[in-house]
Amino acid sequence: xxxxxxxxxxxxxxxxxxxxxxxxxxxxxxxxxxxxxxxxxxxxxxxxxxxxxxxxxxxxxxxxxxxxxxxxxxxxxxxxxxxxxxxxxxxxxxxxxxxxxxxxxxxxxxxxxxxxxxxxxxxxxxxxxxxxxxxxxxxxxxxxxxxxxxxxxxxxxxxxxxxxxxxxxxxxxxxxxxxxxxxxxxxxxxxxxxxxxxxxxxxxxxxxxxxxxxxxxxxxxxxxxxxxxxxxxxxxxxxxxxxxxxxxxxxxxxxxxxxxxxxxxxxxxxxxxxxxxxxxxxxxxxxxxxxxxxxxxxxxxxxxxxxxxxxxxxxxxxxxxxxxxxxxxxxxxxxxxxxxxxxxxxxxxxxxxxxxxxxxxxxxxxxxxxxxxxxxxxxxxxxxxxxxxxxxxxxxxxxxxxxxxxxxxxxxxxxxxxxxxxxxxxxxxxxxxxxxxxxxxxxxxxxxxxxxxxxxxxxxxxxxxxxxxxxxxxx
Length: 475
Fold this sequence. Notes:
Blueprint: H1 12-21, H2 28-36, H3 38-47, H4 64-76, H5 80-111, H6 115-128, H7 132-135, H8 138-151, H9 156-164, H10 167-172, H11 186-193, H12 204-213, E1 217-219, E2 226-228, E3 238-240, E4 243-245, H13 249-257, H14 260-274, H15 281-293, H16 298-306, H17 324-335, H18 342-352, H19 374-389, E5 393-395, E6 398-400, H20 407-410, H21 419-431, H22 437-448, H23 456-467
Antiparallel strand pairs: 1-2, 3-4, 5-6
Helix pairs in contact: 1-2, 4-5, 6-8, 8-9, 9-13, 11-12, 14-15, 19-23
């Protein structure tokens, strides 16, 4: 089992760490609130958030019936010219809706009072890695997003079964083309290789036999819901993992999750995403044991991880590279400003390398050091400057605006009277951890070139220096 952190060690820095990893960061006030309720109370607040109700209404999307109507109109069009006109109309609507959907989810992550659910939804989005590039249906992508959110902290077997019936997934892995005479192996392969077991823990024969169980999975064209077509399904005897039976798709999933390799595979992915890269075999075994013991309860497993001493190790705190979504949400929360306007936001996420609803391939985003290159790091520095500017500006060729920075709230007048008090206040807000003495000396030298009380320009410039460092890219 994972060794729990002694309650007496809980402090402000560790509260900030939990806020960053179980969510998307926050302000010093939010950090202090978590610190004040103790580790168990803080973890419980993430696992059992207040019901938000319908605070994030989804944008208006083209319903499956309307999509079907477009397709029928194209079939009935008298010539190629009319077909192209209808096709362009449909594609224009899809692109606009895809952009609105991305903006909706990013803002939901920015303002939610249930950050762990959104953080886990983002994890599952990368895990199941379905892209608008092939699905080309914003409504189905939203449906999948809602499914991921619904099961985000629930039981993994239930999520895996729900994803086998998900319209976007069925389209993404060509399950809608699979029938008993010609089983398509794409879903059966990915459900083992990428979603549950990892390479080397199944045979080609297992894939071929499992693919037969998922034949007949379809999507209703009029409303986008799942449809099982018995006449297209192979209900015969199958042999998977050495076991024989007339297995259904759900029973194949039950066989998969009963294997210890599944718990190890998923346990490692959870640890890498929420804690740190390259976990030891002992750590993987401990998390796998938790998963097998609680029926793959993701919320319960994360609760144990978030209470563990390993999660708060000095080798873990402030050692994870922020992904682009994490960077954007955490930065705007720290600065207490909204996300930039949609055009700039789209350009920023594209330049940083993480466009939600469009993962790069079936494996999702690599994460870790793959987030950083010389160009993306420079872009992060420029983006920090842009967000701090508080005025209309051109970034990456896009004209847009950002909110005025509430500097009097970030650094009240009584915190501007001297370099020590200003740095103590500002450094924790920006980095959330104590910084090396050599770095602090550098910031003191900057402030010594100015006279207190420090004005807004000095504070803003100092924050830009801090945010244009490799250390700011970590959480």
